[in-house]
Amino acid sequence: MIRVNGKKFPWREGMTVADLLKDLSDSHHYVVVRINDKHVSRPFFAKTLIPDNSEVFLMPMIVGG
Predict the structure, then answer these.
(1) Residue-level pLDDT at 28
(2) What domains can be seen in the chain, in order of their start residue?
(3) Cα Rg for the chain, rounded, in angstroms?
(4) Is 9 in a helix, a strand, or coil?
(5) Exposure of 10 in the CB half-sphere (CA atoms within 13 A)
(6) Nearest-angstrom CA–CA distance, 2 and 64
(7) For 13-41, how does the pLDDT look when each residue is reduced to its tens digit (9 = 90+)?
(8) Which comes out higher in pLDDT, residue 28 or 65?
(9) Backbone angles phi, psi at 50, to 5 degrees
(10) Closest C-alpha to 51, from 11, 19, 5
(11) For the chain, give me the number of helices (H) and strands (E)?
(12) Residue 50's pLDDT is what?
């Protein structure tokens, strides 16, 4: 089990950040994800594994002027 933005979410062996975002079916465009104390940028989502019992925070892109 992992926590995503404070909510419990099922974890599976080999889960990457890209897998998590696909499973969430979230329409936001995330550029950075924090796993515990490590920040991961978009180019590394498919390569970065999420360990079991992790705290994951999704950081959406903010646009404004």
Answers:
(1) 80
(2) 2-60 (3.10.20.30)
(3) 11
(4) strand
(5) 3
(6) 32
(7) 999 999 999 999 877 888 999 999 999 99
(8) 28
(9) -105, 115
(10) 11
(11) 1, 5
(12) 98
